[in-house]
């Protein structure tokens, strides 16, 4: 009996080796599928603005260029599609660099309240066009210095506030709150738009995941904004949180350290 034991040991070793290799192969296959899907997604996303711009330019070349009004309208639309294409490529590069860990974070002290005011001013036009009211609440007697990457946090605020306007109803409201709790600054952006279905909530941070495809594209959305936001906050050892109720609206929030 004792003589089988070494053989059994070898068998066990071979078995566990096979299991480990199988797992490795499974991971590689999963990565390959993921890459294939990603390339398919990118191709599809790139085609949308390219085809649109092509359509307008060819229609102009086919004779529409003679009509001054049509000429102007089509050129404007072609320009918009090219802008979307540019934004998409920029976002893809940013996300890719973040996922590969090559993006460097430059931490400094700054006042996040001033930053939010700046973002609101920049998005005022967008809110006015939709008749959306943007309110910003903070304690006037408090200070709001944080230690973070300024450009990247600007991007986070811009993305969340811009989404709260874009996915709101006409005449809706956006409420931004900045609060100091212990040694953290807490930012929340609430809208009273449609809300996000429960099954989509987990997925909106994935690249190209959209709940409302047409509204996102019309608003110049790339479907990459929240994926970038998530990465930026991870780089700050922070997390983006979301709560949403259908028909009532959504709240996105995050925290940063007090400087
Ligand atoms: P997009 O460029 O499409 O806006 P994002 O990554 O910023 O991409 O958002 C992903 C998707 O999440 C959006 O397409 C939209 O469907 C949904 N979403 C984001 N913010 C909100 C919000 N405040 N209210 C409702 N839906 C939202």
From TrEMBL:
EC numbers on record: 2.7.13.3
Domain annotation Histidine kinase: ranges: 41-259
GO biological process, any: cellular response to phosphate starvation
GO cellular component: plasma membrane
Domain of life where this protein originates: Bacteria
Keywords attached to this entry: ATP-binding, Kinase, Membrane, Nucleotide-binding, Phosphoprotein, Transferase, Transmembrane, Transmembrane helix, Two-component regulatory system
Record keyword Cell cycle present: no
Listed GO MF terms: ATP binding; phosphoprotein phosphatase activity; phosphorelay sensor kinase activity
Catalytically driven reaction(s): ATP + protein L-histidine = ADP + protein N-phospho-L-histidine
Entry annotated with the keyword Transcription: no
Protein name, per record: histidine kinase
Source species of the chain: Litoribacter ruber
Full-protein interval shown: 86 to 344 of 344
